[in-house]
Amino acid sequence: MGILLITLASHASYAGGARQNRGSDPFFQISHAVADCPTPLGPFYTKKEWTTRVHYRVEDGNSCWWEGRCRLSNAYKYDHEIVEAVQRRLAFINRTTGWREHTALWLTLQRRFIIVQGCVSANFDKKKFLFELAKTADVQKVIDETTNNPKASTPPYRTLAHPDVLPPEPH
After folding, report:
1. Which of 49, 111, 112, 118 is deepest in the core (most CB within 10 A)?
2. The pTM is what?
3. How far apart are CA 15 and CA 9, in angstroms?
């Protein structure tokens, strides 16, 4: 997994000139079963993009603690702990969902949210998978940004190959 993160980081930096995982958000691929699935951009931002996000990140990260909904002082502090729990949860739910055989997925963890990006086969029960993944300890929300058409002109997420192309607005 570490090699993948390093590889993606170097590609993101090369492709955009200055894209980096500036928030050290966990980002990793969990499956490879759907061919030609576009690689998500993940949490790689230019300095300008990061500058516009940093204020909201601080505000969003600290608000759960101030409101008494978090045991840690910032919601982003959970993310690296959640990685381990996600790995255990995924191993457990593969028996009932078969996600490994029907998906090409990447996960980004940000402030107790899991962002699921990538491709799923047309016959895959995505709803059940997302429901089960949301049961991971300390996870507040799972965000679905997947497609069952890897050849779509614009997937529902920004891609590593075309980082400046925005996804279509959700319906």
Report:
1. 118
2. 0.88
3. 10
